[in-house]
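# step 3/5: fold
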Amino acid sequence: MVWKRRRDRDDEWDRDFFNDDFFGFDIEREIRRMEEWMNRIMRDFGRGEIKGPYVYGFSMRIGPDGKPQIQEFGNVPRRFGIKEESMEDYREPIVDVMEDDKTVSITAEIPGVNKDDIELDLNDEDNVLTIKVDTPERKYYKEVELPAKVKPDSAKATYKNGILDVVFERAEPRKKKGKKIKVR
């Protein structure tokens, strides 16, 4: 009887945790799609249709809206879009974008390059920062959509130990939402 009660509780938890409403998508379906995609790549690689080396991975974090955000990186054709063939030799670095009331910060992992080889280009109309490295030894490319309009002239970029940090001032300060509540 104790086991049954515990089992019922576990089933209830599984049902609540893994339902579509919790994450906003079916995680089991996403894992199956990822497995199918990796199997297809391995099959093509075994046939000699794909020349390496290739890098692929993803990171997952919870976004400000409480839903998971999946970010892919690497130099293989993208699952959710078609990557240009000319970009096939480039690796897509892992990038993290953070913002506060006054700034937008971008951190990218691009090891093995000199700071002089890093090209940064801000398209302030589309609000996209392009990070590119094109050397014979290493090639990186990433277009980063910024979460807010920034002041292009405020850019400060540093590169140390394979980590690129770029900080922009926001064009307009973030408007605070909500209302302060006094605790009594």
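# step 4/5: annotate
The radius of gyration is 21 Å.
# step 5/5: archive (pending)
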